Amino acid sequence: MQEDSYVKYRVVRTRPGWPWPVKTLHDSIINITPPRGAPLKGPKPDSIHITAVNIPTVYTAVLETVPKLHAAPPVPVPEYTPPTSRAPPEEGYDLIVHVGVAGPGPLRAERLAHKTGYALPDYERQSPPLIIGAKGNLRGFGLPRYGEEFGDELFTAVDVDSFVGDLTTGPNPLPLEPSNDAGRFVCDFTYYCSLAESRIAKRETPVLFIHCPPIGQPMSTPEVADGVRRIISNVCGKL
């Protein structure tokens, strides 16, 4: 945590038609929820400042934008970043969370992302980068930026099972489950890029991806926004 208890958080929307859960969180401040039984770190709850960013569901937009989120200070892309009351912190963000849409059901917290295997075109009908190497012609990540030091799967450093356990029990359980399949589409692509860029930046910023259902299947927009808010609060309480 930063000494002034100020945490920046990025939400990435990755599908047209699903702006409101993240937009309602933009430029808001929420309190960190410490793990059950753990005391607050100070006389007042630590606070989280949330900045929402809309990255299009386009492979090139991901490659342009995600590395800039991991810079210190971060470099906002104007066309994707709405106005905010606070400038990006000079030392970089403390937590980056990406949010995308999956199928009907609960929220899904993704444990890992995949380097290759991306066959589907994006919303501009463009294919992901073609990688030519010892394993044949694949689409995804490769040299020069994402070499062999980055495995076929990258795992988040966030303890997914811990916060899922915290938030799915108690008096107000959240519809939430862990997942090992981020889909090998732009969401998965975004997640791998962000996990890799966290290492490249040598700051090891925690990165997480949350999949939410389409509106009303079964969660409403306020329910999704509240769920994302609770996840971030819980995760930040353990940083």
Automatic annotation (TrEMBL):
Belongs to the peptidase C15 family. InterPro entries: Peptidase_C15-like (IPR016125), Peptidase_C15-like_sf (IPR036440). PANTHER family: PROTEASE FAMILY C15 PYROGLUTAMYL-PEPTIDASE I-RELATED, PYROGLUTAMYL-PEPTIDASE I. It comes from the Eukaryota. GO terms for biological process: proteolysis. Keywords: Hydrolase, Protease, Thiol protease. SUPFAM superfamilies: Pyrrolidone carboxyl peptidase (pyroglutamate aminopeptidase). This is Peptidase C15, pyroglutamyl peptidase I-like protein. GO terms for molecular function: cysteine-type peptidase activity. Transmembrane segments: none annotated.
